[in-house]
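Sanity check

After download, print the first record. It should look like this:
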Amino acid sequence: MVDIAARVYNHKWKIDPIVRSLIDTDFYKLLMCQSVFRNKPDTDVTFSLINRTHRIKLAHLIDEGELREQLDHIRSLRLSRGESTWMRGNLFYGQRQMFRPDFMDWLEKLSLPAYHLEKRDGQYELTFEGAWPEVMLWEIPALAVLMELRGRRVLADMGRFELQVLYARAMTKLWQKVEALRDIPDLRIADFGTRRRHSYLWQDWCVQAMMEGLGPKFTGTSNCHIAMRREIEAIGTNAHELPMVYAALAEDDTALAQAPYDVLSDWHEEHSGNLRIILPDTYGTEGFLANAPDWLAGWTGIRIDSGDPATGAEIAIAWWKSRGEDPAEKLVIFSDGLDVEKIAELQAQFAGRVKVSFGWGTLLTNDFRGLVPDDALAPFSLVCKAVAANGRPTVKLSDNPEKAMGPEGEIARYKRVFGVGEQERVEVVV
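Expected structure tokens:
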């Protein structure tokens, strides 16, 4: 097992690059990339880094030269032969050759496009612009780089023994969580923590701890590189990015209202089984489900990713019943701001009523809260989102207005089109 503290103490970026592979990313990004490659390859998009935790001034913490080195290193990466073989030949969700030959031929030649980096008001403005299938693959590595460089800055002045104690405490903290999860009956949980992880080495350690500590209750990881190395399931479906861009491309309000369903119609043609998971909250869950076509009710399940999770699940259960479906046969994946107590609560509340699963993110792979002075390693809310498509702004409403994004005028328009009224504000922890 890797001595993480020693590696942190001795690290140089060429020895320990933050992103070491093009598949050091979430599985859903590759699935979505193939869908975009097939359906919208010529769409021009802009992605931008957004730090929701304004008090953390990343440009004061992270050296610009070091950040550029890491980003330039990512641009030098190419898919290796072994990685290509894994993608082409591995069994994903019970299906071989999930990734089409034409998509793989394109991906094997890909190098990520250029980036634009500036400092403004103590923050980095990091943007990526170009063809959607290329630019979208910057999201996860960009987040991983910023999160880990911030951590490296905090750890830079620690001595060897101090680092050993820090990681021992963090390991103990995580193992106590694993022990608590063992006691939850019928638990099914996966690692969703790539985008805001403490580091690659730490995420890999967390996955191994979950594998040993939880056995079959641990269903896999969203991180493709770790899934390949540890020979476990790669987990993931789709994300808000697809409806956000499809909606921005809509020519009028009628097309806008239809855009989220067009996304899932394209997805329906490509995937079956446990990949048919609805993410309904981009423009409000209740309105999305109320206007959803009947064929969507036949999908496998739903992912709850904003707002109060129990409320979201109850809305989904009521919707399935209204469409003549048996909720007990449906899968509900909870994935927003989870930790052990909330996982136990939701499992107890919904076990037997639906099939319950959890995608555990930041508080699995980056819970160093309370372990250093001033809580300087506490996780924070950093995202990298599509902000424009073919020159038009994107919008996300969410079930939590704290996560809304887009120009005020467009937010108002989207609320009108999608019938979104007053929403309860929930603190965005991570």
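If your output differs, re-run the checksum step. Summary of this record's structure: Residues 18 and 248 are 33 Å apart (CA to CA).
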